[in-house]
């Protein structure tokens, strides 16, 4: 049991160091890494920082649209252990389910049309950050796929 506790503490320290390093990288405006493509960790850290500082947009859908330190660490832990199961596999399972369930396709498309609409620049970071929390049906479909086809 002692070995397990030590391993868990070491993993927690490693994950905390990853988050701290990314925060410092993002805060350093002169960093060469500034031009690099953001990843999932950058997305979590940035939205966490902006919304905690009050500079995030209030979407009106939730009181809290940011992740706590513990939630960021938990997501990193999950993605680290589940790394063998790629997002591509989950997408294949989701497409399989949607192909079999036409009504659910329509249900998701209604939400996407309502949230994204005709906006041409929906891929810009600002709009994505605003729209993503509003895609509740898409999130539900993703979570159901993960439930039915766990790693």
From TrEMBL:
Signal peptide residue numbers: none
UniProt entry keywords in alphabetical sequence: Heme, Iron, Metal-binding
Alphabetized InterPro entries for the sequence: Cyt_P450 (IPR001128), Cyt_P450_sf (IPR036396), Cytochrome_P450_monoxygenase (IPR050121)
Gene Ontology molecular function: heme binding; iron ion binding; monooxygenase activity; oxidoreductase activity, acting on paired donors, with incorporation or reduction of molecular oxygen
Pfam families for the chain: p450
The family this protein is said to belong to: Belongs to the cytochrome P450 family.
PANTHER family, sorted: CYTOCHROME P450 (PTHR24305), CYTOCHROME P450 12A4, MITOCHONDRIAL-RELATED (PTHR24305:SF166)
Name assigned to this protein: Cytochrome P450 cyp-13B1
Provenance organism: Colletotrichum orbiculare (strain 104-T / ATCC 96160 / CBS 514.97 / LARS 414 / MAFF 240422)
Gene name in the database record: cyp-13B1
